[in-house]
Design goal:
The complex is a heterodimer of chains A (394) and B (375). Chain A has two domains: 168 residues, VC0802-like, CATH 3.30.2130.30; 209 residues, HUPs (Rossmann fold). Chain A has 13 helices and 15 strands. In chain A, the strands form two sheets. In chain A, strands 1, 2, 3, 4, 5, 6, 7, 8 and 9 form a nine-stranded mixed β-sheet that branches. Chain A has a six-stranded mixed β-sheet with strand order 14-13-10-11-12-15, sandwiched between helices. In chain A, helix 5 runs parallel beside helix 6, helix 7 packs antiparallel against helix 8 and helix 8 crosses helix 13. Chain B is 40% helix and 14% strand. Chain B is built from 13 helices and twelve strands. In chain B, helix 6 links the parallel strand 5 and strand 6. Chain B has 375 residues and is α/β, with parallel strands linked by helices. In chain B, helix 1 runs antiparallel to helix 8 and helix 9 runs parallel beside helix 13. Chain B has two domains: 238 residues, Type I PLP-dependent aspartate aminotransferase-like (Major domain) (Aspartate Aminotransferase, domain 2); 119 residues, Aspartate Aminotransferase, domain 1. The chains are: A alpha/beta (394), B alpha/beta (375). At the A-B interface, loops of A face helix 10 of B.
Chain lengths: 394, 375
């Protein structure tokens, strides 16, 4: 039996004249992600995208698992392809959905007839197919309001498609339809969530990680790789810049008052990230900050770090509670990796009593005791670049 | 590379690697199979058993191969508790055992056994007087480690066993000898124990093989059930490559253990002399600890920073124990170290292959790192 995937794009249908550009990007994203399974043909048909494998040996379960994580798709179904003859449609509906029909009690049939030349009307199709399925499954009864399964029969120009319940997609906008931004990733719980949230709105990601060896370990860097590879399952590949941050942190320790360590560090991170973002063609920065979560994320502290960035800073977690952030991180499977206990640069030289109500003027004064230009330029110039893709076997 | 993390695991010696290769290629059979290739695997198991038994100082019939030291400890503890449950419920151990002893004991505690954890003296040693006070007629089982994995303290097991035998003759005595095997004599007869655990990968054998000595006549109930391998004690198809490698590693142990010990002692002392020439290095291991393990601190330089810095110089060491990530060392706490010293503790562990050049190079790099990060 031949099968296809049917993808529904939601919000894109509302995009007016840009719609076809957005759909092209969505198709490109799907194709790139499905490439390792083989070749597929994509056909647009109103708000449905038909994805047809070109080889018989392609694993559609795996294809569906990949599609589930592509932004811009609100729902998808795996459907059987069949000839446009009513008796054949009945038989294939029974065959194709037999396992699922056995385990439920109520169903209904819905017909969509885009080929208006088809000799039966939608209600007639529903009646025929519904009656046939009832006769074959003694456990079933029809419930048109709250069925456990809706069997959909779509009569298209060349074939009919038959499928059960539509599954929920990742939603959002296709990655790449809203430009690119650079994620500051530490290895904690929040930053991967922030990256995922912005990718969901169609923003392509690059990322910057600050490493301070030997205060931070190789394992902390490996952890960041792992987190990004999980985000990449949704966002597509991510260019990661790893910045050697030790010298700057040591200079902060040597020249600044202890209660400003973290703030000065955050400001330098913003400066470096802004420079790398511009080099990378990204138009904004993304952080996982949530207001009031820690001393460096008070409304005053955020104002001070914001001032050091030369690009807009997106903070999608800003109004979320920690538990809400954790819920998302569990849903996107980054939580268990995030909580591995390795030092990151934010925990090096942590002040005992950090300033919670700093002013930009104060920090500028503190920063003015040392000329940071050379260290910053060096950190930007020596940042290590690499592509992070989803891990093998996922 | 300078590999000073031999208490975590050791590099596999040539003899073990060669033996394992044979088992992976020619002798891959299941030792329970009747055909030729199964027979070859069976023969290899037999040889390995003879070799390990000889190295321990027991008869091959008393030696049971296990998948790991942890599996052997679990079987020893759960088996002994079950066997003796009609005679009492009091179990005695030390407060510094490895998790593979401590966790099964915690499980027994939840099942109604009373577990007494003896404090150690200032040098980290099991205190015989507290053992004497803890022994009561309902004591059924005592488990004591021979050599501590974090600071290298050697416990007076023979003396303890004599005490136990005189006061509680019925109690079963177990010794976790994983860190001592291959370095000092672990002969069960001399130590006076009924059960003894060893592991292959601490003596330049592979991971995936350990062994439990069970004294002849002691009918320990099995804890892992199945096809009845290892006389029913450790069911599951035998990991023949690992076991054969274990045998080869045991056979390759130096005959003259005393001389090797003294060589390592010389190296350890040389290192201690060198690093204590500056005031900021503290030695946490007592001087009579096994010389293969040396625990040091540079108070103020966190363990992780020192480990990362040494790693950048291609030097491998551990913080405390490699098995317990992210916890403050109980062992160092027990011997009265303050938090600053514990948080900066690193464990350096040598092997019989350690050289003077490695020791000198280590001392030099270690001191330069300490100076750099001390503030």
């Amino acid at each position: 039996m031949k099968e296809v995937l049917l993808l529904k794009d939601g919000e894109l249908a509302l995009k007016g004249l840009n719609r076809s550009t957005f759909e092209d990007i969505l198709v490109k994203n799907c194709k790139r992600r499905l490439a390792r399974l083989g070749k597929f043909t994509f056909t647009k048909s109103q708000s449905t995208m038909i994805v047809e494998p070109n080889q018989p040996d392609i694993d559609l379960d795996e294809a569906a698992a990949i599609i589930r994580k592509v932004f811009g798709i609100v729902g998808y179904s795996r459907a059987a392809v069949c000839e446009k003859e009513l008796p054949t449609i009945c038989c294939i509906a029974q065959d194709y959905l037999a396992d699922e029909l056995q385990n439920i009690h109520t169903f209904k049939v819905e017909a969509k007839r885009s080929d208006k030349k088809f000799p039966f009307t939608s209600p007639e199709i529903c009646r025929e197919v519904g009656g046939y399925l009832l006769s074959k499954n003694k456990n079933l009864s029809v419930d048109v309001h709250h069925p456990e399964m809706t069997v959909t029969v779509e009569i298209r120009d060349q074939y009919a498609f038959i499928h059960g319940n539509q599954k929920k997609g990742a939603g959002g906008m296709p990655v790449g339809t809203n430009g690119k931004a650079m994620l500051l990733i530490s290895g904690g719980i929040d930053s991967p969530v922030a990256g995922w949230m912005m990718a969901k709105r169609g923003i392509a990601l690059s990322a910057v990680h600050f490493a301070s060896p030997p205060y931070t370990s190789k394992r902390a860097e490996m952890k960041v790789h792992e987190l990004l590879s999980k985000v990449a399952e949704y966002s597509g590949r991510i260019k990661l810049y790893t910045v050697h941050f030790t010298d700057i942190q040591e200079a902060i320790r040597d020249h600044c008052p202890e209660d400003t360590f973290t703030l000065i560090m955050r400001r330098h991170m913003m400066r470096i990230a802004s420079a790398l973002a511009e080099k990378d063609g990204a138009s904004a920065l993304i952080t996982g900050e949530s207001v009031g979560q820690v001393a460096s994320q008070t409304i005053y502290a955020l104002g001070c770090t914001d001032q050091a960035a030369s690009l807009p800073v997106f903070r999608p977690c800003i109004g979320l509670d920690k538990t809400e952030i954790i819920d998302i991180s569990r849903a996107i499977n980054t939580f268990e990796t995030s909580i591995q206990p390795y030092e990151d640069c934010c925990t090096v030289f942590t002040p005992k009593h950090p300033k919670t109500k700093p002013t930009p003027a104060l920090l500028q004064e503190v920063e003015s005791v040392f000329d940071w230009t050379e260290l910053l330029n060096q950190a930007i110039a020596t940042a290590k670049e690499e592509w992070i893709t989803q891990e093998e076997g996922i | 590379m300078i590999y000073f993390d031999n208490s975590a695991t050791t590099p596999i010696c040539r003899q073990a690697a060669e033996e394992m290769m044979k088992m992976i290629t020619d002798n891959f059979g299941n030792p329970s199979s009747r055909h030729e290739v199964g027979l070859r695997a069976f023969q290899a198991m037999k040889t390995a058993r003879n070799r390990v038994a000889k190295a321990i100082g027991c008869s091959p019939e008393e030696l049971y191969f296990a998948p790991s030291g942890t599996a052997a400890n679990n079987t020893a503890i759960f088996g002994a508790a079950k066997l003796m449950k009609h005679f009492g419920n009091r179990i005695i151990t030390t407060s510094l055992e490895h998790p593979s002893v401590n966790e099964p004991l915690k499980a027994l505690e939840q099942n109604g056994y009373e577990v007494i954890r003896l404090p150690v003296d200032r040098s980290g040693k099991l205190s015989l007087s507290s053992l004497r006070n803890a022994l009561q007629p309902n004591t059924i089982f005592v488990s004591m480690m021979l050599v501590n994995n974090e600071i290298g303290v050697i416990n007076p097991i023979s003396e303890a066993s004599k005490l136990i035998r005189s006061l509680c003759p019925r109690a079963i005595i177990h010794c976790d000898a994983v860190q001592g095997f291959g370095k000092i004599k672990v002969t069960p007869g001399k130590l006076g124990v009924d059960l003894l655990t060893v592991s292959a990968h601490k003596i330049h054998g592979p991971k995936g093989a350990g062994a439990l000595y069970i004294k002849n006549g002691l009918h320990l109930p099995a804890y892992i059930l199945g096809g009845g391998q290892e006389n029913g004690m450790f069911s599951g198809t035998e990991a023949t490559p690992a076991i054969a490698g274990f045998g080869a590693a045991a056979a390759a142990l130096p005959i003259d253990m005393r001389t090797t010990y003294e060589n390592v002692q010389y190296l350890r002392d040389r290192l201690v002399d060198h690093v204590t020439s500056v005031p900021f290095v503290a030695v946490n291991s007592p001087s009579d600890a096994i010389p293969y393990v040396l625990n040091l601190s540079v108070p103020g330089v966190p363990s992780e920073v020192m480990i990362n810095a040494l790693s950048d110089h291609d030097i491998c060491v551990s913080a405390g124990s490699a098995c317990k990530k992210g916890h403050r060392s109980e062992v160092l706490k027990a011997i009265g170290m303050d938090a600053r010293r514990i948080d900066s503790a690193i464990r350096i562990s040598f092997s019989r292959f350690t050289t003077i050049d490695e020791i000198d190079r280590f001392a030099e790099v270690f001191l330069s790192c300490a100076k750099r990060f001390l503030r």
